[in-house]
Write a structure and sequence with these properties.
The protein has about 140 residues and is mainly alpha-helical. The chain is built from six helices and two strands. About 50% of the residues lie in helices and about 5% in strands.
């Protein structure tokens, strides 16, 4: 399994919205500059997040985007599945028509899937926010 730039940038976009959650909408142009990501690419990603109700759009000259919920209510898995689709490392036919489901390797793939889900479904945007703050405060001179 490999997470594409769409999934990675969606995570960074949501984290940027959480970090800059001051009550004022965050402009995509500002996020693009801070994250060093193309504004056009972020527009595609924010559209997906907006349609899913993960963010709210605020129109007007002082408009932008805000999180629709608290950071603690989003998991990494929610965001990644929205932008990436399935996070399952190997797709095989459950009916055994391809022989994979009857093979012992299917146990490995199932365990790997469980491990991935265990991480992404238990790490919240709030966790990432706290990790980011800790990282920003741990500089060395």
């Amino acid at each position: 399994m490999r997470i594409s730039t769409k999934g990675r940038y969606a995570m960074r976009l949501m984290l940027d919205l959480a970090i800059n959650n001051s009550g004022e909408p965050v402009r995509l142009k500002d996020t693009a500059r801070r994250q060093n990501i193309s504004e056009k690419y972020l527009e595609q990603i924010i559209s997906i997040l907006n349609k899913a109700g993960y963010v709210r759009s605020i129109r007007g000259p002082q408009g932008g985007y805000v999180l629709a919920k608290k950071p603690s209510e989003y998991t990494a898995g929610m965001i990644l599945r929205l932008t990436e689709g399935s996070l399952t490392p190997v797709e095989y036919a459950a009916d055994g028509s391809d022989g994979e489901a009857d093979c012992a390797t299917s146990i490995l793939w199932d365990r790997l899937d469980e491990a991935i889900c265990q991480v992404v479904d238990h790490v919240t945007l709030e966790d990432l926010l706290q990790w980011q703050m800790a990282k920003a405060n741990s500089y060395v001179i």
